[in-house]
UniProtKB/TrEMBL annotation:
Every Hexokinase C-terminal domain range: 248-485
Source organism: Kingdonia uniflora
CDD domains: ASKHA_NBD_HK_plant
Name assigned to this protein: Phosphotransferase
PROSITE patterns attached to this UniProt entry: HEXOKINASE_1, HEXOKINASE_2
């Protein structure tokens, strides 16, 4: 993702303060008993990122209100509240060979699943993952989809004898497409816009299934898409296959999104449809922005992004951005507060040089001298750091991650509130499962804890014990295959 730096590039160890000014500066700094350097920047950051209960409640209530507005009409709120056209979830009776194609970021996955019906369920699976060359993220739609279809064709060629296709049937695909799409049917949808750093020309405004079908035809690949789904919808379907109490699914990885099971009779924009059934709503909650506690670093990062003013919730809570926010804070602390001894390493000015996995590793460091933190700072930024500086870096990391996890928890409560209000109290009074997927949630224990803490604080212990947040690893891949089977053209 191309993001402009917020300050000019400095020499590797260029002095930024005269000795006199540095003495004045250092007189403004204090040291906690823990050894952390406390500066006005850190104090302001912690104040701006604070998420006490009233802030969380405001965010949750705003999420609920924006969901309602988005269900009234398209454009009614920041939340698109997209109809998925998934009106029936997998039952366990699905059988046969199905494929899934999962495009959600810098990789795409292809999955092969043999389903055995109620008795055997998932008989066997195979998958492959292919990295998308970065240049294809900025090229044409035809080039991107040709690359994807080529990978799918190579995978299909390796189909072994343990997978069997029923006579007279064509290989069907569940296509997980994790970008904002205006769904027009279960197997068609118009791309609204690219996110997650993609800027492929020729796709927005067109049906992504048609783009894939045309590419498969060019590859001579005899397959058909029977279900187009978002990764959150697929995650919900995959988790619901094993647990009937799953009602919400959330992705917290490079990007973020959420979906939930909604009653069709409370969706005004279904244009008079009076069915009493259920459907899945893809909220596209990454675009939420109401009442979020933002800092100057968030605003600068947003302004320098390829989509300024958009996806504010995603830029505050998801894995693509947490490391970058931390980097921007450290850069200012190095320039203004002499965090690294009054010198600013050049690489500290490189956008996205610090990734969220690096932030996670620094927070896991339990060594007495925070050696892991020191190594990461040296390896990425070529900076030597004192123990006090390392403790300050960890505190910055914790401040940004705590805000992100707690805001994600408030978003989940906002969805549950909406469901509770329209179900006459049937959500909070029973076991309700939120299926979670994504590397940020899976691999970052502090983030998970902050998220769960926020849910418990908002709902109270009596209600929150009924809300089960359950990790659903790889749920989107299996879920897409299951939805392909349950929406098969040959069923």
């Amino acid at each position: 993702m191309a993001v402009a730096a917020t300050s000019p590039s400095l020499g590797p160890f260029s002095p930024v303060r005269s000795p006199t000014k540095r003495r004045i500066l250092q007189s403004r700094m204090a040291v906690r008993s823990t050894g952390t350097i406390v500066t006005p920047i850190l104090i302001d950051l912690q104040k701006s990122c604070a998420t006490p209960l009233p802030v969380l409640r405001h965010v949750a209530d705003a999420m609920t209100d924006d969901m309602r507005a988005g269900l009234v009409c398209d454009g009614g709120s920041d939340l698109k509240m997209i109809l998925s056209y998934v009106n029936s979830l997998p039952t366990g009776n699905e059988n046969g060979l199905v494929y899934a194609l999962d495009l959600g970021g810098t990789n795409f996955r292809v999955i092969r699943v043999q389903l055995g019906g109620k008795d055997e369920r998932v008989v066997d699976t195979e998958f492959d993952q292919v990295a998308i060359p970065q240049e294809l993220m900025y090229r044409t739609s035809e080039e991107l989809f040709d690359f994807i279809a080529s990978g799918l064709a190579k995978f299909a060629e390796k189909e072994s004898g343990k997978f069997s296709l029923s006579p007279g049937r064509k290989r069907e695909i569940g296509f997980t497409f994790s970008f904002p799409v205006k769904q027009t049917s279960i197997d068609s949808g118009i791309l609204i816009k690219w996110t997650k750093g993609f800027a492929v020309s020729g796709t927005p405004g067109n049906c992504v299934v048609a783009c894939l079908n045309e590419a498969m035809e060019r590859q001579g690949l005899d397959m058909r898409v029977s279900a187009l789904v978002n990764d959150t919808v697929a995650t919900l379907a995959g988790a619901r296959y094993w647990d009937d109490d799953v009602m919400v699914a959330v992705i917290l990885g490079t990007g973020t999104n959420a979906c939930y099971v909604e009653r069709t009779d409370v969706i005004p924009k279904m244009h008079g449809h009076t069915s009493s059934g259920n459907t899945i709503i893809n909220t596209e909650w990454g675009a939420f922005s109401n009442g979020l506690p933002l800092t100057e670093f968030d605003r600068d990062m947003d302004a320098a992004s390829i989509n300024p003013g958009e996806q504010i919730f995603e830029k505050t809570i998801s894995g693509m951005y947490l490391g970058e926010i931390v980097r921007r804070v450290l850069l200012k602390m190095a320039e203004v507060d002499a965090l690294f001894g009054g010198f600013v390493p050049e690489k500290l000015s490189t956008p996205f040089a610090l990734m969220t996995p690096d932030v996670c590793s620094m927070q896991q460091d339990i060594t007495s001298d925070l050696g892991v933190v020191g190594s990461i700072l040296n390896n990425i930024f070529e900076v030597k750091s004192s123990i006090r500086a390392r403790k300050t870096v960890v505190e910055v990391c914790d401040t940004i991650v705590k805000r992100g996890g707690r805001l994600a928890g408030a978003g989940i409560v906002g969805i549950l509130q909406k469901m509770e209000q329209d179900s006459e109290g049937l959500i909070f009074g029973k076991r309700t499962v939120v299926a979670m997927d994504g590397g940020l949630y899976e691999h970052y224990p502090q983030y998970r804890k902050y998220l769960q803490d926020a849910v418990t604080e908002l709902l109270g212990s009596d209600i929150s014990k009924n809300v089960i947040i359950d990790h659903s690893k790889d749920g989107s891949g299996i879920g897409a295959a299951l939805l392909a089977a349950s929406n098969s053209k040959y069923a």
